[in-house]
Hints:
Helix content is 57%, strand content 14%. By secondary structure, it is α+β, with helices and mostly antiparallel strands. It folds into two domains: 128 residues, CATH 3.30.70.1730; 41 residues. A five-stranded antiparallel β-sheet has the order 2-3-1-4-5, sandwiched between helices. A hairpin with a 4-residue loop joins β4 and β5. α4 crosses α5. The mean pLDDT is 85.
Amino acid sequence: MAITRDKKQALVADFSELLATSKMTVFAQYKDLSVADIQELRRTAREKGVVIRVIKNRLVRVVLSQNDTYKDADTSALVGQLLYATSDSDEVAPAQVLNDFAKTHPALQFAGAFSAEGAVLNVEEVKALAGLPSREQLVAEVVAQLLSPVHDITNALSGNLHALLDGVEAKAA
């Protein structure tokens, strides 16, 4: 069944808004996935703040041509049945969500990505992004590194205190 012009305009407007606020848009082929698989992907993506959209590539090209940031982007990778994962809060979350899902559903294959700056990323670059730790993990690692000297000093002082108490206890006995 053909989509009406009004529905196409609504899809273009919706995807334009998603693309404008997105820090990263990753697209992947989903040819042999079932509807249940796509619903599962959407559910897990929603939990991580990622929006999944299935939209015709021709309409995506219209959206890209209307956006100043993406109007010169290479759209040659937009072939086949693609789904688009976007996130407005984390650059690597869309790649990580799709990568995690692809581990159990090998039919899902990366096709590329668009960065917020308008750059087109290839499959290898998207896979590299998917391997990065999440933002929360990076923040936790930085905090741990900053607190490391404090913990070292605390442990050293408490070790000396324990030795002093053990010495006093040995003298008293």
